Amino acid sequence: MSVEVLDGATIRSFVEDEQVFNNSVDDRFASLDTNHDGQLSYAEMARELQSLRVLETHFGVDEVKPSRDELLRLYGSLFSQFDHDGSGSVDLEEFREETRKMMLAVANGLGFLPVQMVLEEGSFLQRAVDRETKKIYP
Ligand SMILES: [Ca+2]
């Protein structure tokens, strides 16, 4: 965990840097795909869905504290957002596409005002900051 200052432009330029962005997404995909079949099952995605949930809470999209059932339903609907063809698992293309969309949504939510955030090591937002401060090379 580290505290960083970031704004929408930091995230947007990270997403638009296709090589760096795809590398980051591919890394994440590989680390989530614990049985290495090239698909992410719901169970494999659970960790990622939790961190997306943290993002939503952070940006005040949803300030109500949901019950356990509601949370599970929320994860389920997030998962089906990723699973475009409804196959029950998420492939690399779907993962890239949806991650890209979500990052851009976060960028739009941030706008031009820099905010201070606590970032998880290896998270996409942390990588966006690292890229800008040149800690990551393609
Ligand atoms: Ca898998």
Automatic annotation (TrEMBL):
The UniProt record lists the EF-hand domain at 20-55, 70-105
* SUPFAM superfamilies from the UniProt entry: EF-hand
Name the InterPro entries for this protein: EF-hand-dom_pair, EF_Hand_1_Ca_BS, EF_hand_dom
MF terms from GO for this chain are: calcium ion binding
Keyword set, alphabetical order: Calcium
Any Pfam family from its record, for instance, is EF-hand_7
Q: Which PROSITE patterns match?
A: EF_HAND_1, EF_HAND_2
Q: Does the keyword Calcium apply?
A: yes
- The name on file for this protein is EF-hand domain-containing protein
Organism for this UniProt entry:
Colocasia esculenta (Wild taro)
